[in-house]
Amino acid sequence: MHTASILGVILLATGGALPGQEPLRLPPTLPWSGKSETLIAPANDPWITPAEAAQFRTTPRYAEVRGWLDRLAAASPLIKVQTFGRTGEGREMVYVRASKGGARKPVVLVQGGIHAGEIDGKDAGLMLLRDIALRGKDSLLDKVDLVFVPIYNIDGHEQTSAYNYPHIRGPAEKGRDTNARDIDLNRDYAKLDAPESRAMIGLIRSLDPILYIDCHVSEGFDMQYDVTFTYAGWGTYARHRATADWLQGRFGPAVSGALTGAGHTPIIYPSPIDARYPEKGIRYSPEGPRYSTGYGDFVGIPTVLVENHMLKPYRQRVLGTYVLLEAALKIAASDADRIAAAKARDRASRPAELLTRWQPKAEPIGWIDNFKGVAFDTYRSPASGRDEQRWLGKPITFRMPIIGQEATETARLPRAWWVPPSQTDVIERLRLHGIAFDTIAAPRTLRVDRVRLVDPQVRKASEGRYPITARFVHEPAEQTLAAGSVRVSADQPLGLLAAALLEPESQDSFLAWGFFPEMLSPAPSTDAYILAALGERLLDTDAKVKAAFEAKLKAEPGFAADPDARLAWLYAQAGPGHPYPLRYPILREVD
Predict the structure, then answer these.
(1) Per residue, what are the HEC states of 48-78?
(2) I need a surface site. Which of 99, 111, 425, 575 has the fewest CB within 10 A?
(3) What phi and psi, each to the nearest 5 degrees, are found at residue 489?
(4) DSSP type of residue 18
(5) Nearest C-alpha neighbor of 50 from the set 137, 40, 20, 114
(6) What does the alpha-carbon distance between residue 306 and residue 216 come to, in Å, rounded to a whole number?
(7) DSSP readout, 427-494?
(8) pLDDT computed for residue 568 by the predictor
(9) What is the SS3 assignment for 142-186?
(10) From CA 124, how far away is CA 42, in angstroms rounded?
(11) Number of C-beta neighbours around residue 195 at 10 A
């Protein structure tokens, strides 16, 4: 082809975007300048980061990041690059420890790129490490160590495209949100299916940080705020109160002040109820341990979710992240003893219940007066065939409602959970999380609470699994537990995490994630004439079964008209019953 023809094919395939350009026209930017611009290294600085050198148009790949960090470590005794695992495709997972050495100090753990297209944290962290190691900011390490994971989801990071995260304004090409198995690592903290997740939980357990920061970029509506952040349950619905109080009372004001002073416009992350109608409000809600923030809350580690606004230029977002991270190191250092005390209080608490279901409250729990929004109008899109938003780049303010939640279901926690020795996947994950348990060497007979599933539904595939929903019936029973069964006590620092994983009603339980497909297999059967005779005998000799059978026939015409279903139901009532179908294999010790 001629050069002009080749160019035409490229433009057609990319919607008019040449390599290195965004594939679509995003809403107009708001003008911005701030004090944080002085953080950018001059073009002739030998330690300019790759993103700075590219004027924040692009972001470096994994190999370039690794090479730059190795060079920094060779130049400064404050910097050490270490590995802590391998990705699904075999890449080494690395972290940087910035430390002055000496006596063991508390750790601030920061990660970038769990969603690899939301990569602001990586480039901000490289700039901050450079300035700590070589540009006079080493006093940040006087009372704390910084552990920085530049790229968590490395395999996703390397699958770059201009069409990944098209809603985010820069860099030009970005990685993917999921790993090589298409698992979102920020949905995997509880179930630990991905090797990256297992490595990160191991790192968290070894460090036990006083502060954990997870850097993201938002979706949603346009607004004037550029750096937003939040905590588990927006602090309001945290499961552990002491660390949440520190985040809300100390961390939030400290970093907000630093950001404002540097020319940024921060706010607690405004997660929209409906991005098409911003005036409907923003959502505050509980969350489970599948997320970084939820996991930190359940294990008693103050955890921050940074959600930079996606329509702000990459340069502005990276600089805001730098300011936030520097302020975080300062407040963590000054409050190290206070944070340690909050962690200890949370880990000593023994909640009696676990909130498992909730719904939006009918009335707002609060308002943000003069919310800094952006005006929009609508137009009829030939692509969607409906009216779509068109953001105008014009600042406006309005009163924003905050929509909270109310409990619809809670689970009363047992004294302990009993896991059969055959459930090796579950036992392995308990061990990876550091949840304490005891193993019995000989069979033991106990009165337990046994759980039966009612009307289970297999949901569409999600995060590498087929989740299950059901209603549950709790029944007292006497059961002999096999040798090798493990007892997981609720009376332990990680008791709340154990509850989230083992309580059947929990939305982040192993059951909810579909770990026990054997529960859905039908009971073994035999010839119809045998089942009919057995059923007739049961109806003649067991009045309780007969009454339940007749009630079911009356209430369910489809069941009454299905001979095989009738016989299968009767067979399920015979004898001690079958141990697998619709039986949750984990038992609850309540006495």
Answers:
(1) CCHHHHCCCCCCCCHHHHHHHHHHHHHHCCC
(2) 575
(3) -75, 140
(4) P
(5) 40
(6) 5
(7) HHHHHHHT---EE-SS-EEEEEEEEEEEEEEEPPPBTTB--EEEEEEEEEEEEEEPTT-EEEESSSTT
(8) 84
(9) CCCEEEEECCCCHHHHCCCECCCCCCCCCCCCECCCCCCCCCCHH
(10) 16
(11) 20
Residue with tokens 């509850």: 499
pLDDT of residue 16: 39
The terminus-to-terminus CA distance of the chain in angstroms comes to 80
Digit-coded pLDDT (tens) for 224-247: 999 999 999 999 999 999 999 999
Cα 108 to Cα 305: distance, rounded to the nearest angstrom: 14
In degrees and rounded to multiples of 5, residue 410 shows phi and psi of -130, 150
Residue 499's closest CA among 298, 287, 269?
Answer: 298
DSSP 248: I
Q: What share of the chain is helix, strand, coil (3-state, %, to 5)?
A: 35, 25, 40
DSSP letters of 280-311? G-EE-----TTSHHHHHHHHT--EEEEEE-TT
Number of neighbours of residue 236 by Cβ within 10 angstroms: 18
Task: Say if strands 107-111 and 211-217 run parallel, antiparallel, or are unpaired.
Answer: parallel
CA distance 471 to 448: 19
Residues 6+ apart with CB under 8 A from 135: 47
Contacts of 162 (CB under 8 A, 6+ apart): 14, 17, 19, 20, 21, 22, 23, 172, 173, 174
CA dist 72 and 127 (Å) reads 11
Give the distance from CA 338 to its chain's centroid.
26
The pair of structure tokens assigned to 443 is 């069979």
* pLDDT band at 523; cut points 50, 70, 90: confident
pLDDT tens digits, residue range 175-228?
999 999 999 999 999 999 999 999 999 999 999 999 999 999 999 999 999 999
* Dihedrals phi, psi of 554, to nearest 5 degrees: -75, -40
Task: Spell out the alpha helix ranges (H) of 300-455.
Answer: 314-334, 336-348, 424-433
Q: How much is the CA Rg of the chain, to the nearest whole Å?
A: 28
For position 362, what pLDDT does the model report? 95
DSSP secondary-structure letter at 39?
Answer: G
CB 446 within 8 A of CB 485: no
Query: What global pTM score does this model have?
Result: 0.91
